[in-house]
Write a structure and sequence with these properties.
Length: about 375
RNA sequence: CCGAACUAACAGA
């Protein structure tokens, strides 16, 4: 059984849940590890339905099984379901509570996360890191720093959270200082520095860091590619894309984005889009922007209407496309149709009017905004 | 110590 279990785990890690299932089915005397590892194979590969099915068939689910389901549900966007599952769990432990803390933080519910943290009878390094990240990701930089100071031990993950928080705030100098003072680095820390320097448009610094860093992976290559796109260096972007040892949708999107901002003919951008093996919300949003930048608002709208799904960014980009092309009347309608409008999209609308010299309209929207920053 | 939890890349004003 031990060896079969190992096999299930291996297939699960390789992304082959079907193979794992075959091994699982072949075990006559399954033990609790067999079940958990099979569940792992499903959750790991995003097969939430299969996971749920297996979970309900489990003879004796334990904390580990519950925790995996908790994370799987959250991953599938079912936050409330995972919340409910957490409450109905017969038993909690350090790991399951930490997992819940992370989910709360991802939802932006920091107070609840902090409360859970404070109530925990024991905390591991991972727990502390989760709390640091919770603050860091939600813009509570000083709280994150305070946590970092208080925690009994720190590791590279703790430092990376702080570093990324600085990068998000646009503090290249501060980020550089933290990076230099960190006791250890990994590929995540280096990637953060790529992003930091890309923000300031310092492409040569990005390239230099890229060459200095000890390890490259898909993330680092894509960060480099994105930096080229942000600096409008299409030639660099193309070269990077060709030199990448492997590509995924994110890398394709970064390339598409490089074409989008390059001012190249729209047909070339479309060509890249059509060549892509897949397209997601991001790819479509880049197309909306591409059309908008070239004054083809109608095409932006068409792209928007043919997307398989939408999010706030795609809505906001559509709004901006109309605004930047002087189509203010439509902006109001878009804003009205937009579900769950946030600060960024409100601001886009305000600035649409402001740029058009319609100060009083801008002002009245500003006053009606539910949140401001 | 056969299993679960923490940080990074691609579109936003």
């Amino acid at each position: 059984v031990f060896l079969y279990n190992k096999l299930i785990e291996m297939f699960g890690r390789c992304g082959d849940a079907a193979q794992a299932r075959k091994v699982f089915n072949g075990i006559a005397a399954k033990n609790t590890f067999s079940w958990d590892l099979m569940l792992f194979a499903y959750t790991r590969n995003g097969q939430i339905r299969d996971a749920q099915c297996l979970f309900s068939a489990m003879p004796s689910p334990n904390v580990v099984s519950w925790t995996m389901m908790l994370c799987a549900l959250a991953e599938a966007g079912e936050f409330h379901a995972s919340m409910g599952l957490f409450q109905s769990m017969p038993l909690h432990n350090l790991v399951s509570v930490t997992a819940m803390l992370v989910l709360l933080a991802r939802e932006g519910r920091i107070e609840q996360a902090k409360k859970a943290f404070d109530n925990m009878p024991e905390r591991s390094l991972v727990t502390w890191n989760a709390m640091v990240a919770a603050f860091a990701r939600n813009g509570h930089f000083s709280d994150a720093k305070e946590m970092l100071k208080q925690m009994p031990q720190r590791n590279v993950v703790s430092w990376n959270s702080i570093l990324n928080s600085l990068v998000e705030r646009g503090g290249v100098e501060e980020a550089t200082c933290v990076f230099n003072d960190m006791p250890e680095w990994d590929v995540v820390s280096w990637t953060a520095m790529l992003a930091a320097n890309a923000q300031t448009g310092n492409l040569s610094k990005v390239k230099q860091l890229f060459d200095e860093m000890p390890v490259h992976n898909l993330y680092t290559w894509t960060a480099l590619l994105a930096a080229c796109a942000q600096s409008c260096s299409l030639e660099d972007a193309k070269r990077v894309f060709e030199n990448m040892p492997e590509r995924n949708l994110a890398s394709w999107n970064a390339l598409l984005s490089a074409f989008a901002t390059s001012g190249q003919d729209i047909e070339l951008v479309k060509q890249v889009f059509d060549e892509m093996p897949m397209a997601n919300v991001i790819s479509w949003t880049v197309m909306i922007v591409s059309y908008g930048l070239r004054g083809h608002v109608e095409e932006s709208k068409l792209a928007f209407d043919s997307m398989p799904e939408w999010n706030l960014v795609s809505w906001t980009k559509l709004l901006s496309a109309f605004a930047e092309n002087g189509r203010f009347e439509e902006c109001l309608g878009i804003s009205y149709d937009m579900p769950g409008q946030d600060v960024s999209s409100w601001t886009a609308l305000v600035s649409a009017y402001a740029q058009n010299g319609q100060i009083q309209n801008a002002r009245s929207i500003f006053e009606k905004m539910p949140q401001r920053n």
